[in-house]
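Quick illustration, no need to memorize.
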Amino acid sequence: MKITLVPSAVTEGQDTRGFFLSSYLVNDSIAIDAGGLGFLGDVGVQARVRHVFLTHAHMDHIASLPVFLETVFQSGDHTVTLHAEATTLEILRRDVFNDRVWPDFIGMSEKGLPFVRTSIVEPHRAVDVDGLRLLPVPVDHVIPTLGFLISRPGATVAIPSDTGPTEEFWREAARAPDLKAVFLEASFPDAMEGLARISKHLTPSMFATEARKLPSSVPFYAVHIKPRFAARVIAELTGLGMPNIRIGRPGEAYDF
């Protein structure tokens, strides 16, 4: 299983240790979120994505979705399938694909011009696509949000998405006998814990508390680091002295 952290900085040479947007490529044909997916310069890479799973509807997770769908549009069996919880799909219909912000690709598709297929995802009901199983599990964010446990025979990778302290996701992750990695957010430095708790995100200290809910042998990659605070957050994560904490790098591909 290959997990690629889709880069979200478009200017060469700028500090890319932080994450402006959020999206992952899984084995090249599946995306988790579409924050920067549609801004990838290689259209061929975009065209290989046939399934997009959305964790929630916040802008940094859907920013490039309309552009992506337009770029890769093909009719017939090659149409992209958008997998999301019913609440998330309704937000997209009302606030994005509404013929004001963007053409109504969802409505157009339902009337016969297939820009995108939609598939409702339900918590704890696994979806099998392209040789992988994706199990959606709720996490604790300010709007309904799903994390995903992604599995192939012999390996499971956890992507909780945006969350504050949570429990249900870790209980499900602990059941996986072959958990190879977790990509967990660390949005703000410890001095901003008040904001992190209000917005239901994590700081390095809170990240460490969540990481201790699983065995110390499981690597935790810190992602979703706010670019403005990247140096502080990375220093605080490193200062924890936990050997299983690693810093996710935008653009990096990880094999499991």
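The mean pLDDT is 94.
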